[in-house]
């Protein structure tokens, strides 16, 4: 299955001054993302450090970019604009391995 690197960043509903875990809808976002990881769609993921805005990186497996975007659009944080999608790029793994 092809791999994609996804970068998300805070959306207009992100509350400045709050931690990631204190954002509205955090529990629902966690349940959603854990389910995607459990089924093997999300391979790796987490916040990116540095910078004035919250950003996160995901490595996902999907048939194509449209499928990846559609699946991630179901995230409660995406629906409520706590996060927004910045990019979805095909990725070729050349070093290391995914178990």
Give your account of this protein's structure.
The chain is an alpha+beta fold and 99 residues long. It has a single domain, classed as Alpha-Beta Plaits (2-Layer Sandwich). Helices cover 26% and strands 31% of the residues. A hairpin with a 6-residue loop joins strand 2 and strand 3. The longest helix is centred in the first third of the chain and has 13 residues. The two termini are 13 Å apart.
CATH superfamily assignment? Dimeric alpha+beta barrel
* Radius of gyration using CA atoms only: 13 Å
- Neighbour order of strands in the largest sheet: 2-3-1-4
Q: What is the fold-level CATH name, i.e. the topology?
A: Alpha-Beta Plaits
User: What is the CATH class name?
Assistant: Alpha Beta
Query: What is the level-2 CATH architecture name?
Result: 2-Layer Sandwich
SSE order, one letter for each helix or strand: EHEEHHE
Q: For the record, give the distance between the C-alpha atoms at the N and C termini, rounded to a whole number.
A: 13 Å
Number of helices: 3
Q: In one word, what is the shape?
A: globular
Helix % is 25-40%
Q: Please tell me the overall pLDDT.
A: 95
| Largest sheet, strands/sense/barrel | 4 strands, antiparallel
Please indicate the percent range of residues in DSSP E strands (runs of 2 or more). 25-35%
Structural class: alpha+beta
How many structural units, i.e. domains? 1
* Number of DSSP strand runs: 4
Main features:
alpha+beta, Alpha-Beta Plaits, 4-stranded antiparallel β-sheet
Write the layout of secondary structure elements.
Blueprint: E1 3-10, H1 26-38, E2 42-48, E3 55-61, H2 65-73, H3 76-79, E4 83-91
Antiparallel strand pairs: 1-3, 1-4, 2-3
């Amino acid at each position: 299955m092809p791999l994609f690197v996804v970068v998300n960043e805070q959306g207009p509903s992100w509350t400045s001054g709050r931690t990631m875990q204190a954002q509205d809808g955090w529990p629902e976002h966690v349940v959603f993302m854990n389910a995607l990881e459990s089924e093997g769609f999300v391979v790796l993921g987490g916040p990116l450090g540095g910078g004035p805005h919250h950003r996160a990186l995901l490595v996902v497996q999907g048939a194509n970019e449209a499928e990846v975007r559609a699946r991630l659009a179901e995230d409660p944080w995406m629906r409520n604009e706590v996060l927004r999608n910045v990019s979805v790029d095909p990725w070729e793994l050349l070093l290391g391995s995914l178990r």
